[in-house]
Design brief:
The chain is an alpha+beta fold and 391 residues long. It folds into two domains: 14-19 and 238-378, UDP-n-acetylglucosamine1-carboxyvinyl-transferase, Chain, CATH 3.65.10.10; 23-225, Enolpyruvate transferase domain (UDP-n-acetylglucosamine1-carboxyvinyl-transferase, Chain), CATH 3.65.10. The chain is 27% helix and 25% strand. The chain is built from ten helices and 19 strands. The strands form five sheets. A four-stranded mixed beta sheet has the order 1-14-16-15. β3 (64-70) and β4 form a beta hairpin. α1 runs parallel beside α6 (203-210). The longest helix is centred in the N-terminal third of the chain and has 13 residues, at 23-35. The radius of gyration is 21 Å and the shape is globular. Bound molecules: shikimate-3-phosphate (S3P). Shikimate-3-phosphate is lined by residues 24, 101, 174-176, 179, 201, 321-322, 345.
Length: 391
């Protein structure tokens, strides 16, 4: 069924808002609380289909939970009763829906179990590369079979078992791959080490530490000793800076705006968008307020103004990977040119985000040069909404 939504453009945005819970932290909270040795009260869980699928997968593996706020379909606050690391064989397939994070992180846990599991997903997820987790997890001793229409793609049949720790140099900066290996390493006797080509989101490391599992990080090298117990721990999930990003750019690029975003996650491996916008001339003030689960959070105040294009640095890319599309919009609204390269990973997300961003900006009259690993947007200060835009 198609629906028409009329959008009336605003000249500026004023007010205060809070965004829903962080997606990455919610997936990990479902998994770690589920593996823990007690009951964990998780507040502000992201009640999106992706995170709920991970929660349901954990329930199929023997974890129970009670919803305290929200509904079964859309839980917001919940108590997760951990299984003390003793998962049960699922009765059926585990459906990860649209979520690469869910499928890849769960694979790390399932690689170490004494039973077989099958992970499935929607058409988009069934065409995303799983070889990147299969290679290290198979090296640790798990067996994988991919039964998808595309080679190396889901459905994923996993025959888990006793794992051997490895030292693995990741070919790409991916938090999902890193997390899959660390979660498998939690069950392997000895020390598992991951070396990442660039710093990227470190929620798994921080949350494991807050759940009493010691994870050591030295530069780009992360190590976990297997056999540690996951200690039950309550957690308040901060707002998702990736959701806030749309508001931040809208306010920063619109003179006259005055916007405050409260209780938002400020983990430094997620805030590169703010650094780039500030370099573009944005007036953004960040107030760190507190920390929970090792995750800093606080308030962001944005005063609108005129932005100037910049070049996104190679090392910034992994720490703003989900924000590239909206950053490209900021570039199109700014003076000068905005260059985003070294972002080929965007081609293998839920959609090809380089192609779709360039296409949509052009639909609005923007000028975009597209590359295999990114794009250059040229200052176009009068973006216009197409009259009818189909989604
Ligand atoms: C995520 C990692 C990123 C990101 C995704 C969430 C995570 O993907 O794009 O939305 O929670 O670990 P990659 O690890 O593939 O870069």
């Amino acid at each position: 069924m198609s629906e028409t939504i009329q959008v009336s453009p605003l000249k500026s945005i004023t007010g205060e808002l809070a965004v829903p819970g962080d997606k990455s932290i919610s997936h990990r909270a479902a998994i770690l609380a589920g593996l823990s040795n007690g009951s964990c009260f998780v507040e502000n869980f992201l009640s999106s289909e992706d995170c709920v699928n991970t929660l349901r997968a954990m329930a199929q593996l023997g974890v129970s939970y009670e919803v305290k706020k929200g509904t079964d379909e859309l839980p917001v606050d919940l108590v997760i009763h951990g299984c003390g690391g003793e998962l049960q064989a699922p009765a059926g397939e585990l459906d990860c829906g649209n979520s690469g994070t869910g499928m890849r992180l769960l694979s790390g846990v399932l690689a170490a179990q004494k039973f077989d599991s099958v992970l499935i997903g929607d058409d988009s997820l069934s065409s995303r590369p799983m070889g990147r987790i299969i290679t290290p997890l198979a090296e640790m001793g798990a067996q994988f079979e991919t039964k998808g229409a595309k080679p190396g793609c889901a459905p994923l049949h996993i025959t888990g078992g006793e794992l051997t720790p490895i030292t693995y140099e990741m070919p790409m900066a991916s938090a999902q791959v890193k997390s899959a290996i660390l979660l498998a390493g939690l069950f392997a006797p000895g020390t598992t080490t991951v070396i990442q080509p660039a710093i990227n989101r470190d929620h798994t490391e921080r949350l494991l530490n807050s759940f009493g599992v010691s994870v050591e990080t030295e530069g780009n090298t992360i190590s976990i000793a297997g056999g540690q117990k996951v200690q039950a721990h309550d957690l308040v999930v901060p707002g998702d800076i990736s959701s806030a990003a749309f508001w931040i750019v809208a306010a920063a690029a619109a003179p006259g705006s005055q916007l405050t975003i409260s209780n938002v996650g400020l983990n430094p491996t997620r805030t590169a968008l703010l650094d780039v916008l500030i370099r573009m001339g944005a007036d953004i003030k960040v107030h760190l307020e507190n920390e929970d689960g090792g995750e800093p959070r606080g308030r962001i105040e944005i005063t609108g103004g005129r932005l100037q294009g910049t070049e996104v640095l190679r090392d910034e890319v992994p720490n703003l990977i989900d924000e590239v599309p909206i950053l490209a919009v900021a570039g199109a609204l700014a003076g000068g040119r905005m260059t985003i390269r070294n972002a080929a990973e965007l081609r293998v997300k839920e959609t090809d985000r380089i192609e779709t961003t360039a296409k949509n900006l052009r639909l609005m009259g923007g000028e975009v040069e597209e590359f295999e690993d990114g794009m250059i947007t040229v200052s176009y200060t009068h973006l216009t909404l197409p009259t009818i835009y189909s989604v």
